[in-house]
Amino acid sequence: MKETGKRLFCFGLGFSAEALARRLRERGFAIAGTCRSEEKAAALIAQGFEMHLFDGERPLADPAAALGGTTHLLLSVPPGETGDPVFAAHARDIVALAPGLEWVGYLSTTGVYGDCGGDWVTEATPLAPSTERGRRRLAAEEAWTKLAAEAGLPLHIFRLAGIYGPGRNQIRSLLDGTAKRIVKEGQVFSRIHVDDIAAVLEASIARPDPGAAYNVCDDEPAPPQEVVAYAARLLGREAPPEIAFEKAELSPMARSFYAESKRVSNRRICEELGVALKYPTYREGLAALLEIETN
Predict the structure, then answer these.
(1) Which DSSP category does 116 fall into?
(2) Average pLDDT, the chain
(3) 294 or 1, higher pLDDT
(4) pLDDT score of 256
(5) CA distance 3 to 257
(6) What is the dihedral of CA 85, 163, 218, 247, to 10 degrees?
(7) b/e map of 137-163 (b: 16 or more CB within 10 Å)?
(8) Which residues have C-beta within 8 Å of that of residue 17, sequence separation ≥ 6?
(9) Tens digit of pLDDT for each residue in 66-76?
(10) CATH code of the domain containing 134
């Protein structure tokens, strides 16, 4: 059913936000957002989106024009060394210029739980990030939560597992020659296909519950080397050799991902939001991506 008078504004109209924007546009939402470069803005404008430049350092040129009339707001710009750039530049603008907000979503990360030694975590698990990236995310969550309490913003927090989708997956890395099958004893990650992220956000918009936090992940946490091996089987090629984590050449960012191991429960999105994942494990997700990546 088409909805009129609804407007989604995305701070950071990137990989995950675009998936939601496309869904809501089909329902009649007006879509606007920010990106960092004029080149990216032009490409998104060509797709029918209203775009504004925001690079995390300089604020929006015209906040009133950008935010006016917004009914739904998605915050997907990651925090940096000095904190959340959207909060620093525009938190008060959001409160003042978008008084009709029906839903606000903040895209966080399961990294806020820290290392759990492979154990299961839920939204009730204490937040104890063990990396600088996770600590920044938790600080951002806390800042937006405090503002929501003060100003009545209908805030929802979404803690995303490892995101994959078209152009960003193990099949693509195998084809590019960049895939590595790194083995660390006991290491497991949770994942989520970008289309399922959009489905969760859309379900939350349909059932708003201000103050709620949701883990966004699929049903089956798995060791990373198994996922690479499965992608290789789909391609009909031999998997890369296993490399012990201690001997792997990794960037500091890539190495930090291996500092934490946990299994993330998605029970809340299934039971409270009624989400039926299109890709409940990496196997369905990668199988669906095979044709996209090889054509």
Answers:
(1) -
(2) 96
(3) 294
(4) 85
(5) 40
(6) -110
(7) bbbbbebbbebbeeeebbbbbbbbbbb
(8) 10, 33, 74, 76, 107
(9) 999 999 999 99
(10) 3.40.50.720
CB-based contacts of 119: which residues, under 8 Å, 6+ apart? 262, 263
Instruction: Report the number of distinct structural domains present in the chain.
Output: 1
Angle at 186 between CA 285 and CA 109, to 5 degrees: 55
Report d(CA 161, CA 159) in Å as an integer: 7
Band (pLDDT 50/70/90 cuts) for residue 176 is very high
How many CB atoms are closer than 10 A to CB 46? 9
Interhelix angle 132-151/85-97, nearest 10 degrees: 20
pTM over 0.70: yes
CB 9 within 8 A of CB 74: yes
Q: What is the pLDDT of residues 3-48, one digit of tens each?
A: 779 999 999 999 999 999 999 999 999 999 999 999 999 999 999 9
**Domain of 205?**
7-165+191-217+265-278
Please work out, in degrees rounded to the nearest 5, the angle formed at the alpha carbon of residue 42 by the alpha carbons of 40 and 65: 100
